[in-house]
Write the structure tokens for this entry.
Amino acid sequence: MSPKDAVDEQAEQAELAVAADLPPDAGGPGSGAADAPPDASAPAEADGAAFARLYGEPVLKLPNDLYIPPDALEVILEAFEGPLDLLLYLIRKQNFNILDIPMAQVTLQYLSYVEEIRKTNLELAAEYLLMAAMLIEIKSRMLLPQRQHDLDVEAEDPRAELVRRLLEYEQIKLAAYDLNSLPQVGRDFVRTQVFIEQSLMPTWPEVEVVDLQDAWRMLMKRATLKQHHKITREELSVREHMTSILRKLQSSRFIEFTELFNPEAPPPVVVVNFVAMLELAKETLIEITQAEPFAPIYVRLAYSPA
């Protein structure tokens, strides 16, 4: 019976009760009811028959154009967050051992709950059908007899996976409950900010003559570190080194390659001297010979001096 039908039936019963209490000539003409004194129990009887009061007046009958949706009145006693939550509720409510779940009772109660929610919300019931199928499968596996060659081997309990998932879910649920019990911003307290005016008073250090002397010494050290140095590049001529090499070769027939370089000369001088030797060899003014690999290198003039 829908809520609307129940209300209509209640209103009809109220009308019959009111009509039964009135005398036969109460509403007829010439009955003298208007001249009779009002009965004090009439408002009480009307209030008792009314199913509602509107602006202080009792309402005995619903309007004809009033529409009440079929699901206008829904009372949800228990709200579950999913199939595991419902299954855990059924187990804990009846104090079942979660490690030894009576599958027959739990499956029957679970299916009855799914049937109830299927009547009102088919989409919500679809979420619970997978767990219902799993419960039926576990129940059927427990009813099947074991094979002869499996008797010697300890068979795995079909409920093991379900028990593991239930224990994990219960731990997560308890942890969420503990976290929810902690104070939260916006729910239990509100953060506030208070502006405190702060004024800083300058404090000068106590300075003595010794401190001034030390500061002056530090400034002088910094001044010496920042002195400017002017670095000029030495001008080296390849032609001058070529002339110097030719003069050395004119005084002797052969000269070892290393004797043409000054070991104390800076690197730029050594590089220019080597370039000058290459230029002389390019112009076929000198000959550079070596008897074998890793043997000494000798340099001589390629022409006979006058």
